[in-house]
Design goal:
mainly beta, Nuclear Transport Factor 2, Chain: A, Beta-galactosidase, Chain A, domain 5, eleven-stranded antiparallel sheet, ten-stranded antiparallel sheet, 10 helices, globular, copper ion binding, copper, EC 1.4.3.-, disulfide bond
């Protein structure tokens, strides 16, 4: 991953760190080494990515563990996931870039690896050329196949094609009336099933109208577009004045390669094909002490299950991380559009099926944002007000997975808070209705004959903590009413309540869902370090305002495959092979490899190296206002120091004033402009 600078105040280093993403040259070299070692095989390179070094070695390399000689050199390795044509057998290889040798090559039975952009493009083209698909389109009145489009989707698990012996996809069909037309306004009523190994359409499923006199629905032809050329310049708002965000003295962060320093925060980033943006080795400078916080943070998996129980809609539950890859779906961002202000960009580099590298420019955006008041107090006696405005460091990427777009944001705040936010936008996945048909309670008619189905979005973060060291314990905090009625000597006025902390000691205990009744939150403790004031272990609190139960049955297809969505909190002992909540080979999976399966055996998670899997999400009942393009829907979670520091860590942030931020009155007078602001200081 290389860096593209948009300003001159930051410098980048070319030195390779063990956690740096593979460069384009390294990807090509890995492909060459693999082909040379396996000349008899017709290899399709599904994945070429960094094989991250073992954590115990990295903890020594980074200086966090000192119980032995410090590791100063790390072998650089790449993981290869390959398919052999025509059998489509799957192999895993490990290539040493240090020695330029293929170290291992293993056949992996009964799996299907991630679906790549090459797969998508090949399936899109194949479907349009298929005679059966063309016949379906003719019956609907379409004679020009250039008007037909399709979104290739993972098959989930198809009842007619059980198991993972075939590499399958399904195509959701649409049409356009012109090149830039919104295809989701013109959905078609059939779904081709594609065998990627054979590169053949092996079946077509029609979606029959329900409670309708029609055998097939007609295509809704009314246009519903949102691009400016369709709206018309004359119809655009004329009362929008510019907002300009400037940092005339430059930014407050520095970048060295993929390492970022911002105020008291330090971290590294990387970008991989699957999780996309990953944050490594997070620490906070607390006075003279640099305190470790998190070894690794990433969006491990997500699933979007749809509500309609009829065929083929039961298969619509997209695992956008494990089936498609957030890295592979990353947008190249545009200055002044996706991020505002003084921007620093990082590129991302991935591989194609031939083992060649391709670049996504401006894949990651780094910048600062004003975030309103951080803290304030006014002394009503003398009128003295002290206001400190906060800002946050933003590290973000935006991905497009067919119809949906997700903005994925890592926020770091000056008071030590960390927040992760998803901004879901893009277009609704639509389904055609016959003229007399209704969604029957499983969706909403957002335009004539266009059904936007109910669905949910679940996101599971993999949080690998090192709160003041590698051994941590996750606990649950519940608030309870004092168990005595009003008037009782121990609760005379009835207002008493207290908090109760339950430390999770094993993987069976460490499974949790939200509780409105107890205002439940969770904490990550270091039981080896006691706060001098509270006399209790230091901790970080984990909270979310966006939690929803999985509406599908536990034994449904999605319930079996996405077990991670059944609970908000899971805790497992660290295992370098357990990186993805839905399993490494998520595509066409049965759910036997994932968080829910890993915790069946009771294992110790007390005061040891643990991983916290935290799920948040929303239930989306679409609105007409979400069509033809959806305003952003927000969800996320945050982690905050909780009895970790000795006081508010933002006390040393200087107050701001209008001379610094150049604020003005919208309707100003000279007398008003001379008055001091409320955030004045006596310094």
């Amino acid at each position: 991953m290389s860096a593209v600078k948009e300003m001159k105040t930051v410098t980048a280093s070319s030195q390779v760190h063990p956690l740096d993403s593979l460069s384009a040259d390294e990807i090509v070299l890995v492909g060459q080494i693999t082909r040379q070692a396996k000349p008899q095989m017709n290899i399709v390179f599904n994945t070429i990515t960094l094989q991250e070094p073992a954590k115990d070695k990295m903890m020594s390399f980074l200086g966090w563990t000192t119980d032995g000689p410090r590791v100063t050199e790390i072998e650089r390795e790449a993981l290869v996931v390959a398919l052999e044509r025509p059998s489509m057998k799957v192999y895993e290889g490990v290539v040493s870039l240090t020695t330029e040798k293929l170290k291992s090559w293993t056949f992996v039975p009964d799996v299907q690896p991630i679906l790549t952009m090459d797969d998508m493009f090949e399936v899109e083209e194949l479907v349009l050329k298929d005679e059966k698909v063309q016949a379906e389109c003719r019956e609907l009145g379409i004679t020009d196949m250039s008007q037909v489009f399709n979104d290739p989707w993972a098959i989930a698990r198809h009842v007619n094609y059980p198991g993972r012996g075939k590499r399958l996809m399904q195509a959701l069909m649409y049409m356009r009336t012109c090149e830039e037309d919104n295809q989701y306004a013109h959905p078609l009523d059939f779904v081709p099933i594609v065998d990627i190994g054979l590169m053949k359409v092996i079946g077509i499923e029609r979606i029959k109208p329900r409670n309708s006199k029609f055998v097939r629905p007609t295509i809704p032809m009314e246009k519903h577009n949102f691009l400016p050329e369709f709206i018309g310049e004359e119809n655009m708002r004329k009362d929008v004045k510019p907002i300009i965000i400037q940092q005339p003295q430059g930014v407050s962060f520095t970048v060295k390669g993929q390492e970022i320093d911002w105020q008291k925060w330090n971290m590294r980033i990387s970008m991989n094909y699957r999780e996309g943006l990953v944050i490594h080795n997070v620490s906070y400078q607390d006075g003279a002490e640099k305190r470790p916080l998190f070894y690794r943070l990433s969006l491990s998996e997500m699933v979007v299950p749809y509500a309609d129980p009829h065929t083929p809609h039961y298969r619509k539950h997209a695992f956008d991380v494990g089936e498609y890859g957030l890295g592979l779906c990353t947008n190249g961002l545009t200055l002044g559009c996706d991020c505002l202000g003084s921007i620093y960009y990082f590129d991302a580099t991935f591989n194609d099926h031939k083992g060649q590298a391709y670049n996504i420019p401006n894949a990651v955006c780094l910048h600062e944002e004003d975030h309103g008041i951080l803290f304030k107090h006014t002394d009503y006696r003398n009128g003295r007000a002290h206001t400190v405005r906060g800002r946050r460091l933003v590290i973000s990427q935006i991905v497009t997975v067919a119809n949906y777009d997700y903005g994925l944001y890592y926020y770091f705040y000056q008071d030590g808070t960390f927040e992760y936010e998803v901004k879901a936008t893009g277009e609704l996945n639509t389904h055609v209705l016959a003229e007399d048909e209704s969604p029957e309670g499983y969706g909403v008619t957002v335009a004539p004959q266009i059904n936007a189905q109910y669905h949910q979005h679940f996101f599971t973060m993999r949080i690998d903590p090192m709160i003041d060291g590698p051994n941590n314990t996750v606990g649950q905090v519940d608030c309870h009413r004092v168990p005595y009625p009003t008037g009782h000597p121990k609760n005379t006025f009835g207002n008493g309540f207290y908090s109760e902390t339950t430390m999770f000691r094993d993987t069976h205990q460490a499974q949790a869902i939200p509780s409105y009744d107890t205002s439940r939150v969770w904490k990550i403790f270091n039981e080896n370090r006691v706060h001098p004031y509270t006399k209790a272990p230091v901790a970080w609190k984990v909270t979310s305002m966006h939690q929803a139960p999985l509406m599908a049955q536990d034994d449904s297809v999605v319930g079996q495959r996405a077990g991670f969505a059944k609970k908000t909190v899971w805790v497992t002992p660290y295992d370098e092979k357990q990186m993805f909540a839905g399993g490494f080979y998520c595509n066409q999976s049965d759910g036997s490899d994932g968080v829910e399966a890993w915790v069946k055996e009771k294992k110790d998670v007390s005061n040891t190296d643990v991983v916290l899997w935290f799920t948040f999400g929303i239930t989306h009942l679409p609105r007409v206002e979400d069509f033809p393009v959806m305003p952003v829907e927000y969800c996320g979670f945050k982690m905050q120091p909780c009895n970790f520091f000795i006081a508010n860590p933002g006390l040393d942030i200087p107050p701001t004033n209008k001379k610094v931020n150049q604020s003005v009155l919208a309707k100003s007078t000279p007398e008003a402009s001379d008055k001091q602001g409320c955030c004045s200081t006596k310094l």
